[in-house]
Amino acid sequence: MKTFPVLGLPIHLSENYQDLLISRVENNTPTHVVTMNSEMAMMAQKNTDLATAINKADLVVPDGSGVIFYLKRRGQKQQRIAGIELAASLIEAIGKKGKDYPICFYGGAKGVSEKAAQAWKEKVTSAHIIYNHGYLSGQELDDWCETIKKVQPKLILVGLGVPRQELWIMNHRHLAPNAVWIGVGGSFDIWGGVKERAPEFFCNNHLEWLYRLYQEPSRWRRMLALPRFFIKAMI
């Protein structure tokens, strides 16, 4: 697959990431998926562990208008694929295959991944989903790792936030070596009804970041990465 560098990090260019990943699930092809946006790209400039995780990933998807703008400025036509939408399409497709294709939700506050799993089971009744929150430690975390090893999910979604989720996946892929692993940020919050995704107007006009800032004002420092990325994109 063709790749193109964004601030020295690889972006894999494709017209259909969903079909590619469904094929990888069905063929037990080990896959770490990173959905990279401008904020993550800037963070990786200082965080060498995150940069390593991105470079080691099997598929890096352009999730964010800034990354698409960067590519367009350099003659690369590529549609944006929101990570939450990609993950949702995979849950729907894989969930229909039933218990032979288990799915794993790991992350979020206590009770959130459970709510997200219940919401998905109402949509896809045949889906087999195991779940746990993202604040495990000690024996609880060891037990959860053993559960993943025993169940061997086909699709593992990790919502621990950036960069923690990318690093956790990189260091724990051995638990289910043939799975497709994806870091999904705050997707469990949205699927579980804890937070709302930006309205369609914001999504269609590249302003999803503004709605997130409205929901979480404490993110303002992290959002400073966006204008810095824009400047780099213009060079």
Automatic annotation (TrEMBL):
Domain of life, per lineage: Bacteria
InterPro entries linked to this entry: WecG_TagA_CpsF
GO molecular function terms listed in the Swiss-Prot or TrEMBL record: N-acetylglucosaminyldiphosphoundecaprenol N-acetyl-beta-D-mannosaminyltransferase activity
EC top class named in words: transferase
Segment forming the signal sequence: none
Entry keyword set: Glycosyltransferase, Transferase
EC code: 2.4.1.187
Name used for this protein in its record: Glycosyl transferase, WecB/TagA/CpsF family
